[in-house]
Amino acid sequence: MFGYIMKKFGGKKGFKFRYINYKYRVLLFLMLVVTIAIGVGCVYYFRSSYRRQDTRAAELSKSSLNQIVRQVGEQMDRIYNYYLVFSDKDEITYLVDNNIDYSDYSHIEEARSSLNGNNIVSDYVGGYSFINFNTGWVLSYKGMFKLDETTNINEVNTLFDYSVDSINKNYWLYMKASAPEALDRNYRTTVAMDGLDLIIKLPRISGSTKAMIIVNVDTTAISKLAMESISEGQELVITNDNDEVIYATNSELADMVIMNLEHLPKVLRAGGEKYLLSYNSSQVSELNFYVATKSSYFETINPLYAFLVVLVIALFSMVFTFLSFRWIYKPVDTMVHKISNANDKKLKPGEDELEYITKSMDELSAGNTELQKGVTLLFQRRLMQGELSENEIDDYIDRLSLNKTLNKFLSMVFIIRTDSDDSVISGDDEKNALYSIASFVKQRYGNKLLMEPCYFARAIFAMVNINDDEEAAELPVSIYNSVKEYVETMEKGLVLGTGISKLYSDKHLLANCYQESVLALNSGEGVEQGASEINISYCRFFAEYESGKSVSYNKSFEENIYNSVLQGNKEEAYSITDEFIRFLQLQNLSRDENVVFLVQYVNAIILAVKEHSLDPDSIFKQPIIKIYQDVTQYYDLSRIRRYIKSTMIDPVIYSISNMTTSQAKTILDGIMKLVDEKQGDITLTECAEQLGYHPTYLWKVLKQEKDMSFSDYLEDYKINLAKRLLKETDLTVNQIAAKLNYTNAQNFIRFFSKKEGTTPGKYRQSVS
């Protein structure tokens, strides 16, 4: 069937899916669903089989591991118990208490036979050493020699002192120690200590220690013992208590075990094989054992059986697909025939049946839908501008069929701004972002909206339908949080401002509801800590205010911004603007009352610009008339704060700075000349009066040109003049102090010593 469809609709030009009729799309879809179902079933079957493989491999690993630990533990216990018993026998106590030499052949041979394991544990003993620290003799499997001839005597002494204060004188210890080759002349006189050793301090009961036995366990024999429990398809890794590999049947697997010790996984892959890993340690020998079993060792899937099962399922699915197709497509086919009989437009070859049905229905409703949207938008905008009477509001509500959903309602307004004072969002970017927010609100909360969100005056308005008081408290905050998260996902450095009106039930107060949400942006009560701060998202509810209340407006804002702009002090102008906007936010004023103060503030900046004989229209980023329009039509005080900084303060300070840079050299020369004429006896204010500039401006020039304050410059001038007078004249220190206008010589001497680190008299002696 699929080949027939491809041939029928592919033709010579190739296959194009959009030209397939709906019935064939349904057929293809059903085939795809069935194929996916078969695939999922097969995947589940094979995954289940592989899980069974893993389970059996893990069980085998654990079983082998437990057997290894038990067998090794039993053997290590035998070694431990044998030497503990032996250490109390006569042949060893004789060696501890007596000073033996080569002539004590019988005692030595008895001791050596017992030390070697006496055919009881000798298969697992690689060597031994008996050291008598009192008599200075060493008896080992290599022979007998004096302690002071021992090549590694320092290591022996260190081991003897190890755990000297411990009550337990018998313990296992794994050591890494170098050993000479058998042909090396030092081989015989070297005490073997490398590998796993049993240490026994003697006598075991007495408090003082005279001798020590070191039994070297044959780790190769232990490894062979462990391998007796390993089956085909399994690997073994043995490590010591320092996590060093001492035996491994697979080096790659051993490396992976060591690399993952901190978080040892149950599954490892090495050499292209999947291994199930089990781990345990022997408390007796302090050895760690890792057994890994190949998952593929257990074959649980019969390929022939699996193929037959898939084939049967596929045949059954094809029959089910065609039967389902006829049942699903029948209603669509019936509708197409009915529309075709009642309409001059017939279904074209290759045309989608659903599109044919939809177009026929849309032709009837398209005009009504577009008209409805236009009426809704016009209604909202006229409401915001306060242009509708109560009768007109009733007419719109009836026309838009809002009576059925109009219960209780509130308004929410959303604005955006950048999260930094240094960046400004463009008009197009702002509009696109707001439209995106409107689409998000409509998509997420469309069933809760009285009307679609509306874009107006650089803001998005949404009228929310409320069922009860509980929803009135929770839903607006939930909408705000969702929109805030959505704005953050835009990753454009934007923050969200949200205003929420009171809850209303009277449809004639829709306009009041909109206006309250706007007022809430700047005079509401925040639901977040720091909601009144700049550069963060905030949500505010409308707060009642007293219209016409007296406001203690501080005229100093205008004076301060005028002076800071006049002096070209950008930081101060920014700070004053922040304080001014914060003042308006705290006053809880109406929008019209705020506009009055904003206009006065803008006037002060413009006056400062004109004081510098600059043209405001050529300096500001926008014409003055446009600035006044933006200020009087504001919705967000924080946005106006940024607007004033970027549109007015920044370009003004930049222009003043460029204009005054050329004057700085002339002003600096004037300052230096006055200071020289007065020999440092002059103040910053006096300089400013004589040069005709503001003192702060002179201070700024000095800081810019000399990187020092006026007082620092005077001190440098005075110290240089004093040094010149001390070096080139015969004036006394008192006379020089008087010449520099110090009230007494002691003040001058303290000043000079602080600056130069020496007194004036000593300085004169050093340069004469």
What does this structure look like?
56% of the residues lie in helices and 13% in strands. A six-stranded antiparallel beta sheet has the order 3-2-1-6-5-4. The N and C termini lie far apart (116 Å).
Radius of gyration: 48 Å
The total of beta strands comes to: 17
Low-confidence stretches: 1-17, 528-533
**Average predicted local confidence, pLDDT:** 79
| Helical content class | 55-70%
Q: Which term fits the overall shape? A: flat
Number of H/I helices: 25
Proportion of strand residues: 5-15%
Largest sheet: 6 strands, antiparallel
Give me the secondary-structure topology.
Elements (H helix, E strand, L loop, with lengths): L1 H9 L11 H65 L3 H8 L7 H11 L9 E8 L4 E4 L2 E4 L6 H9 L8 E6 L19 E8 L8 E7 L1 H9 L6 E6 L5 E4 L2 H9 L7 E4 L2 E10 L4 E8 L8 H40 L10 H32 L5 H10 L8 E11 L8 H19 L8 E2 L4 E7 L2 H21 L4 E7 L9 H14 L1 E2 L11 E4 L14 H12 L2 H18 L3 H21 L4 H4 L4 H9 L4 H41 L6 H8 L3 H12 L3 H19 L4 H7 L5 H12 L3 H8 L1
Parallel strand pairs: 15-17
Antiparallel strand pairs: 1-2, 1-6, 2-3, 4-5, 5-6, 7-8, 7-11, 9-10, 10-11, 12-14, 12-15, 13-14, 16-17
Relevant terms:
single chain; 768 residues; alpha+beta; six-stranded antiparallel sheet; six-stranded mixed sheet; disordered N terminus
Summarize the model shown.
The protein is built from 25 helices and 17 strands. The protein is α+β, with helices and mostly antiparallel strands and 768 residues long.
